[in-house]
Design brief:
With about 110 residues, this protein is mainly β. Helices cover about 5% and strands about 55% of the residues. It has one helix and six strands, in the order ββββαββ.
Length: about 110
């Protein structure tokens, strides 16, 4: 049996975006940045929270520290200039608020690339 799970603790990079689909399903999309301990560049994840979990994620604020547990997916796309880009996405099964983190100062919040 194969099994995949990712757990991240990071800071919300952009206000959550509510999504509705023709099927009636709802979701919330947000970005979470994780800074490696050695001070390298922040790694950004697109997080999708579905249905009731999505309603919880809508309360997240930019700079707030969160824990996300889910499955990882990778995708490539072309940005506005036509350059190829790569994005890591998490389908969340668990989403928890941990409070304001090191990015709590609005001056220190870095914009997510997506």
């Amino acid at each position: 049996m194969d099994f995949q799970q990712i757990v991240i603790v990071g800071n919300v990079g952009r206000e959550p975006e509510p999504l509705r689909f023709e099927s009636g399903a709802s979701a919330t999309k947000l970005s979470v940045g994780v800074k490696p301990p050695r001070g390298d560049e922040t790694l950004w994840f697109e997080v999708m929270c579905w249905d009731k979990l999505g309603q919880t994620a809508l309360r997240a604020q930019r700079g707030e520290r969160v824990l996300v547990v889910g499955t990882l997916a990778a995708r490539s796309y072309l940005d506005k200039t036509g350059e190829p880009r790569f994005a890591l996405s998490i389908n969340a099964r668990e989403f928890r608020f941990l409070g304001r983190g090191s990015l709590g100062d609005q001056a220190n919040v870095v914009d997510a690339p997506f």
